[in-house]
Amino acid sequence: MSMLDKQGKIQVPREVLDGLETVRASGRINMFDARGVTILARSMDHPAAAEWVETHRAEYVTGVFRGFEAEKEVDES
Questions:
Q1: How far apart (Å, rounded) are the C-alpha atoms in residues 75 and 24?
Q2: 3-class DSSP string for 46-74
Q3: Distances (CA, A) of 63 to 4, 27, 29, 35, 46
Q4: Is there a domain that residue 77 lies in?
Q5: Residue 3 domain-assigned?
Q6: Interhelix angle for 14-26 vs 34-43, to 10°?
Q7: Which of 10, 14, 27, 56 has the highest CB neighbour count under 10 A?
Q8: Which residue range(s) make up the domain with 60?
Q9: Nearest-CA neighbor of 1 among 14, 12, 15?
Q10: CA–CA gap between residue 59 and residue 77 (Å, rounded)
Q11: Do 72 and 14 contact (CB within 8 A), yes or no?
Q12: 67, 31 in Cβ contact below 8 A?
């Protein structure tokens, strides 16, 4: 599955999206400062978001421009 959906938004796990939204809403960091975002996400108790930004730098930068959305959940039944 591609990380890009039809609208060009970057799909991330819900936990990552929640962390990124918390950091963004705080207004404490420029979202283009990926390193700062990881530090702030950890300090705000969102380690999954910090880890994702560190390991998906290119997708993160694209998402800052295009937006993020939660991955579609797979029904395992």
A1: 30
A2: CHHHHHHHHHCHHHHHHHHHHCEEECCCC
A3: 9, 17, 16, 15, 18
A4: no
A5: no
A6: 100
A7: 10
A8: 10-70
A9: 12
A10: 30
A11: no
A12: no
The count of structural domains within the chain is: 1
Q: What is the pLDDT along the chain (77 residues), one digit of tens a residue?
A: 445 545 689 999 999 999 999 999 999 999 999 999 999 999 999 999 999 999 999 999 999 999 999 998 776 65
Q: In Å, what is the CA distance from 15 to each residue of 20, 27?
A: 9, 19
56 within a domain of the structure (yes/no): yes
In a domain, 4, yes or no: no
State the pLDDT at residue 1.
42
